[in-house]
Amino acid sequence: MNLLIDTHTLLWLFSNDDRLSQKALIAIENPNNNIFVSIAAFWEIAIKLSLFKLVLDIPFERLFSESDKMDIKILNINKQHLLCLKELPFIHRDPFDRIIISQSIVEDYTLVSVDRIFNQYKIKILW
Fold this sequence. Notes:
Layout: E1 2-5, H1 7-14, H2 22-29, E2 34-38, H3 39-50, H4 62-69, E3 72-75, H5 79-87, H6 95-107, E4 110-112, E5 125-126
Parallel strand pairs: 1-2, 1-4, 2-3, 4-5
């Protein structure tokens, strides 16, 4: 299965946060699954760090190497994702979540997220 993990999922995974569901953790750690994180998640984290709305236990730069160690692949934003985004209903207004939703739709990846508003889109959710 191809999984696209949301920003909070990535952060909770790296910080061993109890808010990460057991079901999500098992799926992420399953070697038969391909795990992806959107470059938009790193963009969101960088912005929140620069605005002092987020504090990390590790340096921001290490998020990339830690992702590599866990075989989490970065999903870049492409033209198809933006074309989907343009047509995406404005149920969710957060721009980072909207592009992640669009990537999930275009790539047909299961989105790993606790965000309940995602259920209003026609995507596969795992939590």
